[in-house]
Amino acid sequence: MARISVDHLTFYYDGSFDNVFEDVSFSIDTNWKLGFIGRNGKGKTTFLNLLLGKYSYQGAITTSTMFDYFPYHITGSQMELPAAEFMEDLKPGCEPWRVICELDGLAESAEVLYRPYQTLSPGERTKVLLAILFSGDHEFLLIDEPTNHLDHEAREIVKEYLASKKGFILVSHDRDLLDACIDHCLVLNRKSIEVQNGNFSSWWENKKRKDQFVMAENEKHQKEIQKLKQAARRTSEWADKNERTKIGFDPIKEHDRFLDTRSYIGGKTKKMQSRVKQMEKRIGREIEEKEGLLQDIETPVDLKLIQLSHHKNTLVNIEDYRCQYADSDYPVFERLTFTINRGDRIALSGKNGCGKSTLLKMILQKNGTNDEKLDVLEEGVCEIASGLVISYLNQDAKGLKGSITSFCRERELDQSLFCAILRQLDFERVQFMKNIEDYSEGQKKKVLLAASLLTPAHLYIWDEPLNYIDVFSRMQIEKLLLEYQPTMLFVEHDVRFREKIATKTIELNDCKKREVC
């Protein structure tokens, strides 16, 4: 067991407009199962890279432990090889028997180590890399979003596996995973960093209570500021009125006043003006204290959605539908039957490779909004209502590049409204000056999400919308969908999100895993 101490850490990227970390200090134990929580773009992955020594920084990070990082970078040439042939390049000293033992804990056979890496499913790749990561000793492991793109079954296996381990930092926005796997939280707040005992839910409940207390204190401060402003205004008015009486007086009405009274009135006015200045200083201190209290409060802004109303009740009708790629021996899926009616929010569920994304793209293709022409053989019925407008959110944000201006011009979006949505999703204004390729993965996904929200539509088709999206933004999106209740067809492996949002779940079976489908 060792400690990792961070003292007065300050870091910024060359050419950046803002600091990622500024005068940050905290300490953690390498025996902990630590969940790393924070908004997109706040520096979670950056901090892991600082621990790995990839960047220079100001301040000090002190520890005697060694680090290893997930996911490993796999080169193009390694993709063509079995993992057994290059795993020692990823982790020097890695022993195959230990990796096989770890794979057993992940409910995976050793056979995956001897197949070309590029032929493995996303779940199999994740399990191989986690098995390699945990095959060593005496390292503190840095695990960055291990469940993105994994189906529900694979997520459950990874969750149980990580729950049995210790000595790691886990970066994840999956609330279910964090609750199951961690015993401490490292939280990047808006203006501070805190370390707290417990899992995500216990931290969240503590935060809500703390925020409620701070808001109550803020109300008290606001009332005190109002009283001080009123008192200052009255005193200032008295001082001005008193000052005007220095010169000139009616000897009949003011028979007790003499010329030398002027100096007395001046002194009295000076005291009143001094009181006004003291009150103004106190008001300033109160405002500064109030701002200090509120700096870490999360107050997500309510998002808005512009829906279109279609004249038909049934927007998509799928009946005994079968899809098979032309170069495949198996159908992707078959005997699929369901309808999408106005107000339905239908979740597609199933293992990776069972055809969820294929179905979404076929609906887009029939609607004339899919740029990618799929070479697919079809049987059965897949009907789309005429005049249907679809807003599509792709799961892949890797191709995004260029400025916000060029992105909006290309997609014919109102840039001011688009930036307003990004601000509501916690984008700092300084981010608008950067190119999209320099954003974090979560920020790139928010760009796609904002574009979909800004597109008026009859039907919203979202493919894994929450990958890389932070916890607070997930809650914003949940609230939006429950309030506006748009017609949706979506794929999402976040169990809590799916349970809250879906009105119906359609299970797709993987035909490749069976001799008869």
Give a summary of the structure in a few sentences.
With 517 residues, the chain is an alpha/beta fold.
Report on this model:
The strands form four sheets. A six-stranded mixed sheet has the order 5-6-7-3-8-9, with helices on both faces. Strands 14-15-16-12-17 form a five-stranded parallel sheet, sandwiched between helices. Helix 8 (200-243) packs antiparallel against helix 9 (261-294) and helix 12 crosses helix 13 (441-454). It starts with a strand and ends in a 10-residue tail after the last strand. The protein is 39% helix and 21% strand. The radius of gyration is 30 Å and the shape is globular. It is built from 15 helices and 17 strands.
Strand order of the largest sheet: 5-6-7-3-8-9
Q: Helical segment tally? A: 15
Distance between the termini: 52 Å
Largest sheet: 6 strands, mixed
Q: Tell me the fraction of residues in β-strands, as a range.
A: 15-25%
Average pLDDT score: 85
Number of strands: 17
- Helix vs. strand class: alpha/beta
Q: From the alpha-carbon coordinates, what is the Rg to the nearest angstrom?
A: 30 Å
Helix content: 25-40%
- Any idea what the shape is? globular
Regions with pLDDT < 50 over 5+ consecutive residues? Answer: none
